[in-house]
Design brief:
This protein has a domain of 72 residues: 2-Layer Sandwich (Nucleotidyltransferase, domain 5), CATH 3.30.420. The protein starts with a helix and ends in a 9-residue tail after the last strand. A 5-stranded mixed β-sheet has the order 3-2-1-4-5, covered by helices on one side. Helix 3 runs parallel beside helix 4. It is α/β, with parallel strands linked by helices and 149 residues long. The chain is built from 4 helices and 5 strands.
Length: 149
Amino acid sequence: MAMGFASSTRRRSRRGGRAPMAEINVTPLVDVMLVLLAIFMVTAPLLATGVPVDLPESNANALPQEPQQITISMVADGRIYLDEQELAPGELTERLVAIASAGTAQPPQVTLRADRILPYGQVMAVMGEMNHAGIKAISLVTSGSVAAP
């Protein structure tokens, strides 16, 4: 037993007398994180408040903040409505092209409402017309009361 002890001390002395430390010192990390937390707690209220400024009056119109919203409805018998107005067959594409090329900075937000008994191909044809007109973002309206299959 004494022999094993002596050999282990010899091994230790060959490596410089210190065994490698296998623990990570997290104290500096915690210190840095607490300092960052204190900085963010001090600066966050300053970002939310502003300097009171008495702005001059202007006759200019305010810029629109929300894009134009369009609702396209497809009823069970195949009729198509743009907002509240019924469209003639084939009229949807030209109306969508006119709306998309109206020159606004933001494209219109389009919402598609289709009756559940309509064939999938008919709904996809209308979505294809929207894509052809340049409308790439379409929101589909569903009823949230039906459970998933």
